Amino acid sequence: MRIRSWHTLLFIILLTLFAGWVDLPGDMLNIGGFKDEIQVREGLDLQGGLQVTLQANPPAGQEVDQDTLDGARNTIERRVNGLGVSEPLIQTRGNNQILVELPGVDDPEQAVGVIRETALLEIIDPQGLFLPAGTVVTTTLGGPQDTQSDAAQASPQAATPGAGGIASPFATPGTPAGATPEATPVATSAAATAPENSTPTGPVYTTIIDGSELADAYTGFDQTGRAVVRFELKGGAADEFFQYTNSHIGQPMSIAIDKRVISSPVINGPISNEGEITGMSPAEVTDLVIQLKAGALNVPLDVVQSRTVGPTLGADSIDRSIVAGAVGLGIVALFMIVFYRLPGILSVVALLIYTAVTFAIFKLIPVTLTLAGIAGFILSIGMAVDANVLIFARLKEELRRGRTLSSAIEAGFDHAWPSIRDSNITTMITTFILYLFGNYTGTSIITGFALTLFIGVAVSMFTAIIVTRTFLRLMFDAGLARHRWWFGVEGDAAGTLSAGAAD
Predict the structure, then answer these.
(1) Confidence class of residue 320 from pLDDT cuts 50, 70 and 90?
(2) Contact between 296 and 214 (Cβ < 8 Å)
(3) What is the spatial distance between Cα 71 and Cα 166, in angstroms, rounded to a whole number?
(4) Which of 132, 340, 345, 368 falls 20 to 30 Å from 351 in CA-CA distance?
(5) CA distance linking residue 67 with residue 291, whole number of Å
(6) Could you say which DSSP state residue 250 is in?
(7) Domain extents for the chain?
(8) 382 φ/ψ angles, rounded to the nearest 5 degrees
């Protein structure tokens, strides 16, 4: 036990040093540039910015299902990335709304104009070229500027294949005899030549059909049981698409949303009103179905609520939160020291370690801190000491019964552990439910509070059971403060306890 306690202490010291290093600002002790990406992420209410609630308003006779709403959310996310906004939050709320939070946005009007545009789905003729996912194109229906996404070309994500879109698989399964002709993703053809029709900004690709001519898209299964994307076309478009696919068998076609390619399947045979795309993983199939349905429906998005938060308000909130946290930590520390003396001092040290480790986790995950999230963190500081209260109260009871200090320490932790475990697990279950509810309703205040409180409770169990226990064991091994007064034990109704050593 003795050697194990010293090993545990070494681990605690190393963990504390690492957490303290992570907690330092990014430009301090930034060894090897490791901390370049480790920054405190501030939410909308701390950094300032724009919050917009969009509501899908489909034409009469059309409905918005969850896949379509998810597709619209993905489209908005790609557009927001083009605006250069750091740490945006885009999530669905209910069955017909999308919540968009843009911290630090400079031009709210431009942002609203970009995110509310309906998705433009196109199936284009790449003229023999394989266009990787993420490629920004100009078509006969216009260029990127026509969908207000010209900023996307300057975005680092726009230059990365697959960023914001579907990663196109590079498999070429053959078409079984008698099977329905399929469009299957393939690798680029080295023999392809550039289109003759070009502009100063690049080639212009012909749009074969657009989203308004796509009747439906859904997940299906081929003869081997693998997931495929199945799609249906409307009457006039089916004839035109049949003529194109019949004359381009063995060549790729590209699917683009908002002038950005999301997939480039090869044509294995003529396709009329129904077709399927194979060669993808189940997750990629689901993603492509969502994208196609969103582009097919062309769901208009109405702004039902818009709110701008100034950075001054956010800075003031941070300052007040720091003061509140410091005051709360000080009061808790004073209470523990007055009532529990030496164990109280050790618990304060453990509480400081808890604070450093928790904040480091926030930066490493990373957690986007909101004002409610900071409140959850401060609340978890008070809850972190709750376990120590249970342990120390039991320790005092064991000492009053005449047990030695060593056995009282072990009994205090052993008997208090079931209560600590059950209370913290029930709190974590509650925070998990709150997090799910916040995600469903699109309420970042609830999710931020739940996430920070969950992490705080989890770390508090570690510091109370491992850190404080290790400190007490090593203190006893070193022969320090064995007098029972240091543990808050004095005379009681049964008589005065010995003033000498506890053991």
Answers:
(1) confident
(2) yes
(3) 12
(4) 368
(5) 8
(6) T
(7) 2-41+310-487, 49-305
(8) -65, -35
- DSSP, collapsed to helix, strand or coil, labels residue 177 as coil
Alpha-carbon distance of 51 to 53, in angstroms, equals 7
CA–CA dist 116, 120 (Å, integer): 12
Q: Pull the structure tokens for residue 482.
A: 């064995």
**Encoded amino acid at 155, one letter:** S
Instruction: Kindly report the pTM of this predicted structure.
Output: 0.60
Both tokens of residue 188? 């680029």
The residue to which tokens 């209470």 are assigned: 335
How many CB atoms are closer than 10 A to CB 103? 25
The rounded distance, in Å, linking the Cα atoms of 126 and 490 is 87
Q: CA 277, CA 422: separation in Å to the nearest integer?
A: 51
Give the tens place of pLDDT for each residue, 126-184: 988 889 988 889 998 887 766 544 333 333 333 333 222 222 332 333 333 333 334 54
Query: How far is the C-alpha of 502 from the C-alpha of 404, rounded, in Å?
Result: 6
CATH number of 2-41+310-487: 1.20.1640.10
**Helix then strand then coil, % of the chain, to nearest 5:** 50, 20, 30
Contact call for residues 503 and 483 (beta carbons, < 8 A): no
